Amino acid sequence: MENAVEKKGKFPYRLGFGILFGLLGWLVPYLGVNSTLLPAKIQQIAPGQKVQIVALLATIAMVVATIANIIEGALSDRTVSRWGKRNPWIFAGMISTLICFYFLTKVTTISGIILNWSLFQVALNMMVAPLVAFIADKAPKKYRGSISAFYGVGMNFGTPVGTMIASRYITNINSGTRCAS
Whole-model pTM above 0.85? Predict the structure, then answer.
């Protein structure tokens, strides 16, 4: 059965901008922490092993994220609630990632960072898998490519912005003050 938007032939702008802003909502903080703040924290804790630890952290995070994405995507496909299939997952992921970000500021060991970042990957994918599924769920077939372009714009914009914002929060290891830019 075709949905009302597809019958009328109107472009689904709300869906496109919802995908765009949803993507920016997780991508900007994620990339800022992942590419800038996390390596800086590792540098403070274990400067002599930074490269190896960042590589290990990235490997573990990718494995956890892949498994979480598959499982949480499948679970969101089967969710039935008064808020829809995807929305409860996105909301739970948002709250969970905020909690993980908070605890990331408190951990002082490499094992604590690895554990926290792994939990963060699980929480993040509670948002990512359902958000991507919105394209297939809600976009009329003839507009799926265009709606996917909103996702692409968000990726191209969110990647540098997250890193630029995060770089403003790196502290000088010796003085504890924020670096001047």
Answer: no
